[in-house]
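Forum > Structural Biology > Help requests

Title: Can anyone predict the 3D structure of MHC class I alpha chain?

Hi all, first post here. I have the sequence for MHC class I alpha chain but no way to get a structure on my laptop. I'd be grateful if someone could post the C-alpha cells.
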Amino acid sequence: MKTCLLLLIGIQLVYAGKHSLQYIHFSVFGGTDFPEFTAVGRFDDEQFDYFDSNIMKDVPKTEWIRQNVGADYWDMHKERRIVWVHRIRNDIQILKDRFNQSESTGVYTYQIMYGCEWDDQTGETNAFEQHGYDGEDFISLDLKELRFISPVQQGIPTVQKWNNDKSKLDYVKNYYSTECIDWLKKYVQYGKSSLEKTVSPQVSLLQKDPSSPVACHATGFYPGGVTINWQKNGQDHDEDVDLGEIVPSENGTFQVMSKLNVKPEEWKKNEYECVVEHKSRTTRSVLTEDNVITNYGSNSSESLPIIPIIIGAVAAVLLVVIGVAGYCVYQKRNGD
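Reply #1:
Sure, ran it for you. C-alpha cells for MHC class I alpha chain below:
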C-alpha cells in the first residue's frame, strides 16, 4: 500500500528530469455508492482533471490546466470517457461470464492505469498500460514488442483479439510514442508557467467552542510548499500540537491546519503565536481572544465556521482518493 500513499500525498510538481502523465480509470459494479465509472488524469503525481459517470463531465483540478486549454480539450476528454462508460458495462458482463461469476452477486471492479514518461534531460521516453479485474492482474501492454499479454487464462481471448487487430496496434503505437508524449511535454510547459505564480496564504485562528483546541488554518496558498509552526513566548513549541496534511482546494490552491491543544487559561497567560512560512511571505498570528474566530460569543463568524472548512478539506482529498482507489485496490492484492 506504500505506492497508494505516495499517490495521495505526491502533490508537488518537479520541473527537471523525468516527467509522467498517468490516467487511472476505475469501474465499480454492484452494491456500492461509488460512481460506476471514475477517471482522473495525473501529471507528475498531481491530479489535474476528474470525471465520473454521475456528473458526466470533465472537471479541471489545477489552475495551470484551466489557463492553458479551451473547451475543445474538455469536450474531447469527456467524449472519450463517455465511450468508456458504455463499453465497460458490456465488458464487465463478459468477464463475469469468463470467471464463472454471472450468477453471483457482489462488487466487481475493473481498473486501468496507462500513460507515458519523458526525461527532459536525456530525451528518453517510456509508456505503460495495465489492466486489473477484481483486484488482480488481467492484461498489460508490452510496448517494446507491441503486444498485449495476460497472466490468466480468462484474459487470453482478449489479448488474442487485440493482438490480431492491426488498426488497434497502430493506434496504440501512435498514442504512446507520439500523442501521449506530446501532451506530456505541453503539460510540462503549462506547469512551468504556473510554478512562477505565487499566492500568499490567508491565515486564521479558529475555535469551535471555549473548550476546543485552537486551529491555525492557512488557506488559498500556491504553490503547496509551506511550514506551519507554533511558538510559545518566542520559542518553538512542538508539544500539544497536531499538524494536518497539506491538501488541495477546489480552486487549485492548497490549505493546511495545525491545532494547539492547550487550555484557554494556559494560552491567555502566555504568548502563543502561529507562524506560517511560504515562499511568498511569512505570516505571524498572535493567539489572543480578539484574534480567534469562533462559533460562539461576540467573536463568532458566519462566514468562516470551523466545521465547513474541515469538511471542505476532506472533500477535496476525497476527489483524489476516489480517483486513485482503483489503483490502490489493484496494488493491494499484489502485495504492494
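The domain at 2-196+317-332 is CATH 3.30.500.10 (Murine Class I Major Histocompatibility Complex, H2-DB; Chain A, domain 1). DSSP finds seven helices and 18 strands in the chain.
Shout if anything looks off.
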